[in-house]
Structure to design on (222 residues):
């Protein structure tokens, strides 16, 4: 049996989206994004108190990139991974894990804009820097998606994969702090992949407590 430990709008959403794409049965345990993640009970599942954590037939896994790789290998039928020997394997690993490069900047911005709720705690320099570094990541995706390859609709030449899920979800989080206005290829790709019903199912349900209460957090101070 599979159980995903999830907080809305966080990195665990990429595992949730992947599970929906894989069409496998699983239990979903939604946790509030709060100190409960540091409880003794939760730390037995994720030793640094982070989501995602995945229970998989008696094993416990954490780290979203590793979880996505394991799930793609465990359920190969939907073709969302690329196994060793496949031509796109190196690009698959590189792009799937690039999601974390994108997300580290979003995590820093989330801390600055949301977790640190008093102005004197915030750093305008850090916010500006992290916003620029997030946009550098968008530029890398833009470069990839603009590479002249026939039918370059997805990150991999061989088509949609878990790499699009991981990076797409990282962009979903990032868009709360940096828009895609200057990145037309990323914008078109983002719209394409988030139209999928599986992405829509991975969004927080109506009325759920959200991490991002605003759609966009403008650079601070204004
Ligand atoms: N590299 C890890 C990062 C996990 C992570 O930091 N998750 C965040 C949510 S996006 C979290 O659980 N934060 C809780 C906290 O820092 O207290 C992964 O990709 O799974």
């Amino acid at each position: 049996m599979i159980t995903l430990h999830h907080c809305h709008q966080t990195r665990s959403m990429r595992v949730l989206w992947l599970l929906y794409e894989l069409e496998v049965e699983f239990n979903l345990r939604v946790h509030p994004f709060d100190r409960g993640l540091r409880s003794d009970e939760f730390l037995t599942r994720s030793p640094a108190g982070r989501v995602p954590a995945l229970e998989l037939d008696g094993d416990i896994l954490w780290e979203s990139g590793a979880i996505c790789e394991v799930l793609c290998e465990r359920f190969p039928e939907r073709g969302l991974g690329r196994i060793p020997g496949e031509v796109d394997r190196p690009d698959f690993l590189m792009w799937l894990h690039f999601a974390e490069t994108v997300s580290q900047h979003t995590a820093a911005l989330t801390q600055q804009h949301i977790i640190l709720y008093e102005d004197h705690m915030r750093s305008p320099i850090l916010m500006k820097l992290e916003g620029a570094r997030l946009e550098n990541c968008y530029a890398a995706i833009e470069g990839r998606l603009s590479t002249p390859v026939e039918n370059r609709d997805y990150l991999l030449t061989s088509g949609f994969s878990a790499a699009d899920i991981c990076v797409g979800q990282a962009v979903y989080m990032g868009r709360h702090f940096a828009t895609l206005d200057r990145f037309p290829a990323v914008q078109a790709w983002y719209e394409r992949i988030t139209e999928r019903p599986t992405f829509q199912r991975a969004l927080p349900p109506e009325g759920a407590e959200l991490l991002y209460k605003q759609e966009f957090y403008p650079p601070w101070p204004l």
